[in-house]
Amino acid sequence: MAEPKITVVGSINMDLVIGTDRIPRQGETIIGSGYSTFPGGKGANQAVAAARLGGYMTMIGAVGNDSFGKELLRNLTLNRINTDAVTVYEHEKSGMAFIMLSKRDNRIIVSPGTNHLVDKHLIKKHHEIISASDVLLLQLEIPLEAVMEAATIAKQSGVKVILNPAPYRSLPIELLNQVDYLTPNDQEAERLLSEIDDPSKIEDKLVVTKGKQGVNMFDHKKCITIPGYDVEVEDTTGAGDTFNGAFAYWIAKGDSLEMACHKANAAAALSVTKKGAQSGMPTMQQLDNFLANN
């Protein structure tokens, strides 16, 4: 069976990571340790997660013609992701995320850079790529108009749409109606449901990630909990992106919702055992071995 075609429309960042014993208080300077750079961005992370499992991946996004941009493109290519639809802007800076790691937790500030240039006009240029996909995977680190345009193209073409509503912002009902699956975390789900007149309209689309507590999914209004895994946590950065990429892969393969959640949950658990958003994203062999032993 041919591998599924998954298109990710989203952000591409370089993550600048520094470790600290504790998060500094307001106005306070502290000494950090272990500064590193890792390829990241929610869109790119999710594309890598699906590609590691074997999906045929295409990335639609943007980078700058700077040292980070060149490294980010090279990383996507090394992970077998088609970058033909990644626009390189000559005089713009690539996106960056500044991440503080402390006691297995993190704080993140994102500088969008070229990600803010991913607009609806850029998306329209790649109409055929989206239309030919099995699944379209979206997040919210690019302008909302691009997300809505991509979802519209996908829906018109019968392509399944997965939206990870992060970082959270209020979403128009027109977009929610075009989405097949919504994958918020606990906090995002609470805000999303509080802003909708009739939450029952989207309830069966919800797949709520809950960290070490696992995943909640809904089947005909019935909540099903898939428990988490007990693993040694090194870095939680990118765990949600791993879940989303793996979830998109298994949905594109034709798995049931429950089975896709189960396997994606395991992939996310594996991802937190290594430092860096993409470093711990498992291959199919690693995931199979983990599931066989758990």
TrEMBL record:
<keyword id="KW-0479">Metal-binding</keyword>
<comment type="pathway">
    <text>Carbohydrate metabolism; D-ribose degradation; D-ribose 5-phosphate from beta-D-ribopyranose: step 2/2.</text>
</comment>
<keyword id="KW-0460">Magnesium</keyword>
<comment type="similarity">
    <text>Belongs to the carbohydrate kinase PfkB family. Ribokinase subfamily.</text>
</comment>
<feature type="binding site">
    <location>
        <begin position="240"/>
        <end position="241"/>
    </location>
    <ligand>
        <name>ATP</name>
    </ligand>
</feature>
<dbReference type="GO" id="GO:0005524">
    <property type="term" value="F:ATP binding"/>
</dbReference>
<feature type="active site" description="Proton acceptor">
    <location>
        <position position="241"/>
    </location>
</feature>
<feature type="binding site">
    <location>
        <begin position="13"/>
        <end position="15"/>
    </location>
    <ligand>
        <name>substrate</name>
    </ligand>
</feature>
<keyword id="KW-0808">Transferase</keyword>
<feature type="binding site">
    <location>
        <position position="241"/>
    </location>
    <ligand>
        <name>substrate</name>
    </ligand>
</feature>
<feature type="binding site">
    <location>
        <position position="276"/>
    </location>
    <ligand>
        <name>K(+)</name>
    </ligand>
</feature>
<keyword id="KW-0963">Cytoplasm</keyword>
<feature type="binding site">
    <location>
        <position position="237"/>
    </location>
    <ligand>
        <name>K(+)</name>
    </ligand>
</feature>
<keyword id="KW-0418">Kinase</keyword>
<feature type="binding site">
    <location>
        <position position="271"/>
    </location>
    <ligand>
        <name>K(+)</name>
    </ligand>
</feature>
<comment type="subunit">
    <text>Homodimer.</text>
</comment>
<dbReference type="InterPro" id="IPR029056">
    <property type="entry name" value="Ribokinase-like"/>
</dbReference>
<comment type="function">
    <text>Catalyzes the phosphorylation of ribose at O-5 in a reaction requiring ATP and magnesium. The resulting D-ribose-5-phosphate can then be used either for sythesis of nucleotides, histidine, and tryptophan, or as a component of the pentose phosphate pathway.</text>
</comment>
<comment type="similarity">
    <text>Belongs to the carbohydrate kinase pfkB family.</text>
</comment>
<dbReference type="InterPro" id="IPR011611">
    <property type="entry name" value="PfkB_dom"/>
</dbReference>
<dbReference type="GO" id="GO:0046872">
    <property type="term" value="F:metal ion binding"/>
</dbReference>
<dbReference type="GO" id="GO:0005829">
    <property type="term" value="C:cytosol"/>
</dbReference>
<feature type="binding site">
    <location>
        <position position="141"/>
    </location>
    <ligand>
        <name>substrate</name>
    </ligand>
</feature>
<feature type="binding site">
    <location>
        <begin position="209"/>
        <end position="214"/>
    </location>
    <ligand>
        <name>ATP</name>
    </ligand>
</feature>
<feature type="domain" description="Carbohydrate kinase PfkB">
    <location>
        <begin position="5"/>
        <end position="283"/>
    </location>
</feature>
<dbReference type="InterPro" id="IPR002173">
    <property type="entry name" value="Carboh/pur_kinase_PfkB_CS"/>
</dbReference>
<keyword id="KW-0547">Nucleotide-binding</keyword>
<feature type="binding site">
    <location>
        <begin position="41"/>
        <end position="45"/>
    </location>
    <ligand>
        <name>substrate</name>
    </ligand>
</feature>
<dbReference type="Pfam" id="PF00294">
    <property type="entry name" value="PfkB"/>
</dbReference>
<feature type="binding site">
    <location>
        <position position="265"/>
    </location>
    <ligand>
        <name>ATP</name>
    </ligand>
</feature>
<keyword id="KW-0630">Potassium</keyword>
<protein>
    <recommendedName>
        <fullName>Ribokinase</fullName>
        <ecNumber>2.7.1.15</ecNumber>
    </recommendedName>
</protein>
<dbReference type="GO" id="GO:0019303">
    <property type="term" value="P:D-ribose catabolic process"/>
</dbReference>
<feature type="binding site">
    <location>
        <position position="274"/>
    </location>
    <ligand>
        <name>K(+)</name>
    </ligand>
</feature>
<keyword id="KW-0119">Carbohydrate metabolism</keyword>
<dbReference type="InterPro" id="IPR011877">
    <property type="entry name" value="Ribokinase"/>
</dbReference>
<feature type="binding site">
    <location>
        <position position="235"/>
    </location>
    <ligand>
        <name>K(+)</name>
    </ligand>
</feature>
<keyword id="KW-0067">ATP-binding</keyword>
<dbReference type="GO" id="GO:0004747">
    <property type="term" value="F:ribokinase activity"/>
</dbReference>
<feature type="binding site">
    <location>
        <position position="185"/>
    </location>
    <ligand>
        <name>ATP</name>
    </ligand>
</feature>
<dbReference type="InterPro" id="IPR002139">
    <property type="entry name" value="Ribo/fructo_kinase"/>
</dbReference>
